[in-house]
Amino acid sequence: MTTDPLAFLADEVAELKRANLYRPLRVMSSPQAAVVIVDGKPLINLSSNNYLGLATHPRLKEAALAATRDFGVGSGAVRTIAGTMTLHEQLESDLAAFKRTEAVLTFQSGFTANTGVIPVVTGEADLIVSDALNHASIIDGMRMSKAPRVVYPHKDVAALRELLREARAAGRTDAGAVDAGAAGSPHRLILVVTDGVFSMDGDIAPLPGIVAAAEEFGAAVMVDDAHASGVLGRNGRGTVDHFDLHGRVAIQVGTLSKAIGVLGGYVAGSSALREMLTQRARPFLFSTSHPPAVAASCIAAIHVLQDEPELIDRLWANTIYFKGELRRLGFDTGASETPITPVMMGDSGTAGRFSARLFEEGVFAQPVVYPTVALDKARIRTIVTAEHTTEQLDRCLAAFGKVGPEVGLIPG
Length: 412
Hints:
alpha/beta
């Protein structure tokens, strides 16, 4: 009899279930919207990144259908061989104008954008300085780079400045002579990397302080604006626009799968950065490009952001109302400043039970547990959208108010 060499995986799955860390896949049989059908049941959706409701916007759907009729369903190859279409070039041109940068290169996802750009711009001669709570894709991108890296405490600009000071001072001898690198540093490049909006806590990076510290010590800044794109800044241009830092952030990463409502990621920066990424970024070089329908609907989304600013206004009105009412009920929403509003649970078992009860009460709000967050930081992560009505939000709040005392999170 042949022994299954992967039999141990069943034991590991069982252990995840025992520790309340197993996350079953919920099956949705409806469009991604404010109300969805999950496992056959209609629920108010608080688990989607579809901030502005663009996943079902008529202009995006029509753009996707037209592109499919004109260009087919696939691009056929990676872009350096035969997979670059006019739609891809137009999308990148429109994104560059929207982000007010010289150039943009699109990737298959925000995750691959980070794992593509970081190993290209950094190597053994460089240093990466990263926020402690940066997204997993940034962490993986750093691991794929040969550059050494250091981590500063979350949003701690003073600690960041001290790390930069030490990095630059490392290149000076006792006599004060410069050994190598800019400003007396042995590093060719110091790259400071931060999320713009942190995906689990919903707080905003102190970007003005980060940029000022980087400029003081001759470092470059990279911002992952996945959860800021379409949410912060004029018409949703992101944190760089929100803080009016155009021209002072070297690399901006964004996604096309959250507020944009479709699929993909992009890197915005200089023309030289784009050209180098086309030559060396492995996700770009070894993955087939976006289908025509995806590229066309992303183009339409950029125009919707500029033509319909009321969507962002509604998103923020709903966010302020829902967040305020959760806090009034007594829930801990952490440090959230954006539509990402965590309801802190502590242990994973409580988060799982809370989510299951919300499901029974008609609310789809998934638990977030380790390894996405620390073992003692389990939570229900809620995101309201521009599509939610006040009546829907009130029904969700009523469900939270009912379930909270049952699990001992708030007084009865």
